Amino acid sequence: MKIPVLAAFAAFLLCTGCNKAVDAIAEKVLAPSAPATTDGFVRYTIQSGNQYADGNTYKAVSVSEQAFLVRFDSSAVYTTHAAENQYDINKLYGFSDNNAAHHEFSARFGWRWSDGALRLFAYVYNNGASASQEITSVPIGKDVACSIRVAGAAYVFKAGDATVTMPRASTTALGAGYQLYPYFGGDESAPHAVSIWIKALSQP
Length: 204
Known about the structure:
Structural class: mainly beta
Strand content: 35-45%
C-alpha cells in the first residue's frame, strides 16, 4: 500500500467528514493486487466469493463527463444461489459526487446477467436514495462505449447508441468525489471469478 495513496485518502476523509459509509470505503477500497493491463484496457477481476474487484484503489475524480470502453467476457454469465438475486444490479464504473460517500451521492453504470442477456443500467444515489433504469443489453466479447455526463440537475448515461437521463441532486459544478469500480451485488458475492475489461477514455 503506497503512502501517497493513503495520504490522499486520509485527506478526502477529513474533507468530507467521517461517517460509517466513508469508513467502510477506507476498509475496502484499497485492494492489495493490481489488475492486468492490455492495450489500454484494465482487467478488473472479482474473485469467487468476493464482491470488490482487484485493483479497487482510491482515486479522486472531478469530471464533467466520464467516458470509457467496457468489454465483458463469458465470466459475466452467472447464476445466483438465490433465484431472486438474479435481478440484483451489480456495479460497473462511475464516481461518487458532491464530495460525499457514494451511498449518499453517486453516478455509475450497473450491470447484470438476466433473462439470457447482459444488461447495462444507469444507477444513482441522491441524498442517500438509490434509483436505477435499464439502458440497453450488450453482447459478450464486444467493446461498448459508455459515458456519464454531468448536466446540472441531471446525469446523462450513454451506452452505445442508447441514452438514459437520471436526476442529480448534487450541487457541485462537476462530478466531484472518487472513482467507483466493478462490484458484484446486491446481496450475494460472485459465484465464480468475474473479469471485466475497462479502458478509460477520460481522465479525472
